[in-house]
Amino acid sequence: MPEAYIVSATRTAGGRRDDRVRGWHPVDLAAAVLDEVTRRSGIAPDAIDDVIMGCVSQAGEQGLHFGRNAVLASGLPRSVPAVTIDRQCGSSQQAIHFAAQAVMSGVQDVVIAAGAESMSRVPMGSTGKWSRHPQPGSPTSPGIGAKYPQTIFSQFTGAEMIAEKWKHSRADLDAFALQSHQRAAAARDSGAFAAEILPIEVETADGTELHTADEGIRDTATLESIGSLKTLVEGGRITAGNASQICDGAAAVMVVSERALKAHGLTPLARIHELTVTAGDPVIMLEEPLYATDRALRRAGMTIGDIDLYEVNEAFAPVPLAWLQHTGANPERLNVNGGAIALGHPLGGSGAKLMTTLVHALKARGLRWGLQTMCEGGGIANVTIVEAL
C-alpha cells in the first residue's frame, strides 16, 4: 500500500480566552499556519493539491467556508482548494486522516491538514441551540429524543460519568491537572516547544510583541490552588482546574506521498502508520478513545508497550486517566510536554496541534512510535499511529 508522510508541522502558541490572541481574526490565524507549514516543507505553494481544515464552531467569523477563506487570506495561490470539516474536538485529527487517505489512495500527493478555533471570538455553542427535549431549532431531533430521552448529550455529564465509573477521586483529577502544568512549564522552559511554535505578533498594553509561549500554563499552580476551585456541578468532581482550557489557536500538518517526497526533494518527519476512527455511547461520550485505541493497536499488529509516546487529549482529566487504566500504558510516556489542561484546547485545531507536538517530541527524544487519540462529541474517537523518521 502507498505510504503517507508528514514533512512539516507547526502550531501557534495557545492564547487564553479574551487575552493575547483575541485580536487575531480566526481566518488570518489559520492562514498563518498554512503559510508556515508550507514554508517549512520547502515545497512550492502551487504544488499543494488540497487543504482540509478542521473547525468546530463554523459560525460568524468562522462561517461561510472557513477553510477556503483561510486559503484566500494566506499566501497560497487561489487555485488551491479547501474543505472545512467538523468531527468536533477531533476535527483536525480527522483532517490528517483524510489527507493521508487521499495520499495513500494515489488521488493526491500534497495535502495540508489543519485546524483553527478562536474561542474568544466565536464561543462554544455558536452553531446550535441545545435543549433537553426536541424543539424547533434544536439539533436534538424527535428521532434522537425518542432513543435518548433520559438526558441531553453533555460533555460535562460524560466526564463525571467516567470519573465515577473508573473511580477517580477529586484528588486524583487535581493531581493529574497539576502534573499537566508542571510538564508544560518544563517543556516551555527547556525550549522543547520552540521547534513547533510559529511566533505571531499580538497587541499588548505596551505595543506589539511576538506571542511565542502557551498562555495557559500556570507556573504557580499547586494542589491547594487547584483544589480550591468549585466543581462545575454540585457534588461533582470536574472543575475548571482539571478540565481543558478555552483557547485560541491554530495548527497545520503537511502530508505527502512518496512520489512527492522524491519529486520535491522533501525530508519526512514521520510516516503515518495507522488510521482508526470508532464510535460508541453518545451519553458517556468521552470514553471512546479507550476502545478506539484497542482497535488501532490490533489493526497495526502492535501492543501498547510498542508505543514510545502517547498524546491523549486532556479534555477532562478523567479521560486520559481512564485511558491509562484501560490500556495499561506507561504514564511516563503520556503527554510528556503537558496537555490541554495547561496548554489549552482550541477545539478544531487540537488534532493538528497534538500531532505537531507528538512528531516533534519523538524526534527530539530519538524515539520511534507515537500514538495520538482524543474524545469527540457524540461518542467518537480518532487514533493515529506514526513512526518518526
Automatic annotation (TrEMBL):
Transmembrane segments: none annotated. Residues 5-258 form the Thiolase N-terminal domain. The active site is at residues 89, 345, 375. The keyword Acyltransferase applies. Residues 266-387 form the Thiolase C-terminal domain. Pfam families: Thiolase_C, Thiolase_N. Coiled coil: none annotated. PROSITE patterns: THIOLASE_2. GO terms for molecular function: acetyl-CoA C-acyltransferase activity. Keywords: Acyltransferase, Transferase. Residues 123-146 are annotated as: Disordered. The keyword DNA repair does not apply. Belongs to the thiolase-like superfamily. Thiolase family. This is Acetyl-CoA acetyltransferase. It comes from Seohaeicola zhoushanensis.
